[in-house]
Amino acid sequence: RVQLADPNARLVHRLDQATSGLMVMARNAEVHRLLNAAFAQRKVGKTYLTVVDGLMAADLPWSRIDAPIDLHWPDRPRHHVGPAGKPSLTWWRPLAADAGTRRTLVVLKPLTGRSHQLRLHMHWIGHPILGDTLYAPPALAAASPRLLLHAWHLTLQHPVSGDNRAWSAPVPPEMLTGFCQQAVVQGLHNALIAHTQETFYA
What we know:
The chain is an alpha+beta fold. It has five helices and twelve strands. The protein is globular and about 50 Å long.
């Protein structure tokens, strides 16, 4: 669809089909090369929002998941955490909680870009994402008509001008249902504060 407007457009990265939010595309081959290099060198800041099962305190600090991911060959396309997998790092922090449904709005900052990384990492620490038909139990997979994972905020150095750019995609309303709006506003502010190595999951 993009190439109907700009035939030279090239895809730089991808999202799982069920994930909403921001994507980056290049408008020529040289910019495509530079942006690919920026992603490979982890110079692009990616921030996701998700709604997970389980109640967590919204004032918890940033935590890091360090859990290698590998394709689960007998059960493709699923992946799994295992010692033979590729290094996979995700920072995460609760933003707001709904005691009635025992659900939590969480911010995720992946440092690596493995297939299904965010979905699998949250499942692995015991908080599967609502609407996740690959990793969540059937009741949680059916609890939402879509995967509640959203590529919310993205930062990078512009490959031509060299200045720092940031974009945000509006949060889909279905991801905010049930959460106190004041807590969400404060949580989104906290989501953009730099993470620190305070808690470590491996």
